[in-house]
Amino acid sequence: MDVIELRSDNAAGVAPEIVEAIAAANTGTAIAYGADDVTERLHDVVREVFEHDGARVFPVTSGTAANALALSAIVPPWGAVLCHETAHILNSEGGATSLLGGGAVMRGVAGDDFLMSPDALRRALDSVGWGDPHYSQPTALSFTQPTDRGTIYTVDQIAALTEIARERGMRSHLDGARLANALVSLGCTPAEMTWMAGIDVVSLGATKNGGLSAEAIVVFDDQASDELVYRTKRSGHVTSKMRYQSAQLIAYLTDDLWRRLATNSNDRMRELAAGLAEIDGVELLNRPDVNMLFVRLADQHIDRLEAAGLLFYRMGQGVIRLVTNWSTTPDEIDRTLTAFRS
Asked: What is the pTM of this model?
């Protein structure tokens, strides 16, 4: 059967430009464990892209590792990470932050559209027994950008929340597994969305957007960078042949490749959502701000869509999740809409 991939952008292949970068790095020999020239050049690329002369970058192999290690560098074992109650780090990473953070806990904060609200954050912080060892002490704020429900924080929303956190001496982390999709959607720069808005540490995703097991932690805080030198090694993420990860990340960030790949993901989703909105019996459950859409329809129709070759995730009775990716084509969107209409 000729299937159409709408389960996850993780299911997509590797972008040709990334494959070429890996092949180009696969010549000669290079010193191991990140001491190679390619990884050294990656630092310069990241500093240019994020417009921050002091930024440091730590390539890792998964988004879970990027999140957990980034947070472990800014949260002590007795600390707490505050995030939205639907955040990926809280619900989908098996407690990795608690493991690599030596016992740090995570607390969910409420807010509409799956985004933390300033009022809810203030209430959460006011409820803490500050200085009381019976309470885990909130030391970090974490954003999932975009959220696992396809919504995004504006730059002003991020800045307002990080300001509240900073008043309590907290630092802030951004889970950017789909960071490029959010940047394209908002039309802002990486600097504007991160350190200029009060973010100290970023999980920079590439795998969902055309990479091959290549993620990174981008750090704007010197103390956190010093911690990560040791934490990445202890967790097994200082890979011996790091030049292949670094080469991917350089290609990803060069000539706006990451934005171009994410633009295709977002554009195809907008086309899909616009078409689905015109079909009776199909209810869209979120705005298609990025490349993710949740749809409600009758279970018998879901069964028929699967039989027609559409690949997607069931998110509960009558609800499915559709995700486009860097390689989704207009033809695939047309065929998907034809399947829904029939």
From this structure: 0.96
